[in-house]
Amino acid sequence: MTMKTAVFPGSFDPITRGHVELVKRAAPLFDRIVVAVGINSQKQTLFDLEQRMQWLREVFAEEPKVSVDSFEGLTAHFCQRIGARYLLRGLRNASDFDYEKTISQLNEIVGEGLETIFLISQPAYSHISSTIVREIIKGGGNARPFLPDQLQLPARYNTTP
Q1: GO cellular-component terms in the record (predicted)?
Q2: Catalytic residue at 77?
């Protein structure tokens, strides 16, 4: 029997409660979930790769089905390299769906049958995005309600309690 492996790709800059909730909901569907940080040299990140990888390992330390990795290049090629046949994606709204639908169709071709599984965000998390959380952090606001409990921001980004 083939192991059902899914990849949950993203920048995770930073990981949010919405990301964590999605992985936990998907865990019963797969034998293994690889939370994979995509490295895009064209994208400016707030937190470096090592920090993001450390946070992911801490957040998912108690999840035996979840592992953490990083990759460069196409997500579909990374999936092929590790033997994953599924991509896991979250949808917060109709805009997410329109974008993710197109990407999933391309990944199915490039990934030679790579299947994208969409999970709809729970209402409590549908307003959270890493982009918005980064802006709150950079602006000195309190991002704690949007971040997993295990995540400790570097001192220069301490948010107000």
Answers
A1: cytoplasm
A2: no
Residue 31 confidence (pLDDT): 98
Tell me if residue 57 is catalytic.
no
Paired strand residues for 9: 36
What pLDDT shows up at residue 86?
A: 98
Q: Where are the domains of the chain?
A: 5-157
Q: 45: annotated binding-site residue?
A: no
Weakly modelled stretches of the chain, pLDDT under 50: none
CATH entry 3.40.50.1110 includes domain 5-157: no
pLDDT at 41: 79
Q: How many CB atoms lie within 10 A of CB 20?
A: 22
Q: At what angle do helices 75-82 and 94-110 cross, to 10 degrees?
A: 60
Residue 121 known to bind ligand = no
